[in-house]
Write a structure and sequence with these properties.
2 strands; 250 residues
Length: 250
């Protein structure tokens, strides 16, 4: 039986290939793809990838769900394209890289970034597209999963270098500083106990500090970073021209 990560990779590869070629995924085609996958991997269950027991109800399965999710994502990008172009005409939000060449060039650069393996080239193109990427994030209401889909380099082991580039562009001369991190970890238990109000996050805090002695330093630091989201005031999101303040749990 395949691991969950392998199933996800197969589904993503199949659906991205369909979208890149401009094809449409019909129910019949989805059934055929599910059959092909299970013929290649006999231990797999066909219904995992596609099932439709009632013709009056929407199909289910990883293939169909991924395709529908990608369709919604593309539709959202198209809906926001006009607003993005208007925003790019504002000189307050453009830089030396957003000049007269238009967005098509930067669309292509960002698409290329998904396939480039030479890290020096990645860093060069990443710097070239700073303003373009910022504008997209500013104008499009993307979830974290959609951001990682659009810029999968954030998943790489060297991704901190990319974060540093973006951070230094926004805050020149003020590099990321973790000199007070050890002090924060030392006072974290009392700080979180006083500040955390969300019930689910309270439970996470209790579990983390209840087994602090058995956690390695990397895992403990990750949990501290997760818990910080419950004590830092969230920023409002610009959603279709309106500011919306997310809840702590969101």
């Amino acid at each position: 039986m395949l691991l969950p990560q392998a199933r996800t990779y197969i589904v993503h590869y199949v659906i991205e290939s369909i979208i890149e070629h401009g094809d449409k995924l019909t129910v019949k085609k989805c059934e055929d793809l599910a059959e092909q996958i299970t013929s290649l991997f006999p231990t797999e269950c066909r219904d995992t990838y596609f099932s439709q027991t009632n013709k009056k109800l929407a199909p289910k399965g990883k293939l169909w769900d991924r395709y529908q999710g990608r369709k919604r994502y593309v539709a959202k990008l198209n809906q926001n394209s006009k607003r993005l172009k208007l925003h790019n005409r504002n000189p307050d939000h453009t830089s030396n890289m957003m000049t007269t060449t238009g967005n098509e060039e930067y669309d292509q650069i960002c698409a290329d970034l998904k396939h480039i393996r030479d890290w020096d080239t990645v860093l060069t193109k990443w710097k070239q597209t700073i303003s373009y990427r910022k504008n997209r994030l500013f104008n499009l209401d993307l979830t974290l999963h959609q951001i990682l889909d659009e810029w999968p380099l954030y998943k790489y082991s060297k991704a901190p270098e990319l974060v540093d580039i973006d951070y230094n562009d926004s805050f020149p001369g003020n590099g990321l500083n973790f000199s007070n991190w050890n002090h924060l970890c030392a006072i974290a238990s009392d700080l979180f106990e006083q500040r955390i109000k969300d019930p689910q996050t309270k439970q996470l805090r209790s579990r983390v500090f209840g087994k602090k002695d058995v956690l390695n330093i990397d895992n403990f630091n990750i949990y501290i970073m997760m818990l910080l989201h419950a004590v830092l005031l969230p920023t409002a999101k610009n959603l279709h021209g309106r500011h919306k303040m997310p809840s702590q749990s969101q």
